[in-house]
């Protein structure tokens, strides 16, 4: 069976091979240092096998690259198994100075704990096998580097109350997801507001959307739909999205009251 190179990982393999060659090390020598088979190392260099993070870290250590292969791995992992229609958004969120997002259905991807993400992906992609699901979960977890890195963007999320009340996966999974949300908010990583179900004049009876602002270019909006999404850069439409988001913030609970609600719902799951 002919192995098919993965477009994302051809770049990683080529860079690993270039650094190995520059260091004057053969594949056999490097495979012994890494304690992997020559066949696996060759497949990684050809892009027919997906490198794992520990492979990238081991290559950096063996070839004394200063961590450049690990950084490349993180960048490429953020794109792996991300649908083509979403890749531009992933790139933009890494460049944004501020991300504001409204979610009316689920906890936003950037804020999802691993088991919650796995349950969401399993439920929404019944055609994917276990390996595909795990790759998608890994890709989503790698996106969280945006909220953990130094110099992260300002992150402000407005969630409909249903997103913290809907049980996804199991009560235990949901309990852990709410704990993750609570810590992110209390640690000041994100600003979180919840729009109560009792809100009568709800301005967010629409699909989820996000706004991304930059230091060196105009803001853009991104609106979700079932099988894709739309990047919006028209000034008037972005302004309208800003107005809706502001209205949602006005109707939502304060950040402190929102954290209290998250804790209350979490307590109900124990």
TrEMBL record:
Residue ranges of every copy of the HTH cro/C1-type domain listed in the record: 17-72
Pfam families for the chain: DUF5753, HTH_31
InterPro entries associated with the record: Cro/C1-type_HTH (IPR001387), DUF5753 (IPR043917), Lambda_DNA-bd_dom_sf (IPR010982)
Single GO molecular function: DNA binding
Domain of life (superkingdom): Bacteria
Protein name according to UniProt: Transcriptional regulator with XRE-family HTH domain
């Amino acid at each position: 069976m002919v192995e098919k190179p993965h477009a994302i990982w051809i770049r990683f393999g080529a860079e690993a091979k270039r650094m190995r060659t520059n260091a004057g090390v053969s594949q056999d020598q490097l495979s012994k240092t890494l304690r992997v088979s020559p066949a696996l190392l060759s497949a990684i260099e050809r892009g027919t096998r997906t490198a794992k993070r520990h492979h990238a870290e081991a290559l950096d250590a063996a070839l004394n690259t200063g961590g450049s292969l690990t950084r490349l791995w993180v960048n490429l992992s953020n794109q792996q198994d991300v649908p083509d229609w979403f890749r531009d958004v992933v790139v933009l969120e890494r460049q944004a100075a501020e991300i504001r997002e409204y979610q009316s259905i689920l906890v936003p991807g950037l804020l999802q704990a691993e088991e919650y993400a796995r349950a969401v992906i399993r439920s929404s992609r019944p055609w994917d096998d276990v390996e595909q699901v795990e790759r998608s979960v890994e890709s989503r977890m790698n996106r969280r580097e945006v909220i953990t890195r130094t110099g992260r963007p300002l992150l402000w999320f407005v969630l409909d109350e249903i997103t913290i009340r809907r049980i996804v996966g199991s009560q235990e999974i949901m309990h852990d997801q709410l704990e993750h949300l609570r810590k992110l908010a209390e640690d000041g990583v994100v600003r979180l507001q919840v729009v109560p179900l009792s809100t009568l004049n709800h301005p967010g009876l629409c699909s989820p959307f996000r706004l991304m602002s930059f230091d060196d270019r105009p803001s853009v909006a991104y609106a979700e739909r079932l099988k894709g999404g739309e990047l919006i850069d028209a000034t008037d439409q972005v302004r309208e999205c800003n107005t809706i988001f502001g209205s949602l913030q006005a109707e939502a609970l304060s950040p402190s009251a929102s954290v209290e609600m998250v804790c209350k719902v979490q307590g109900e799951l124990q």
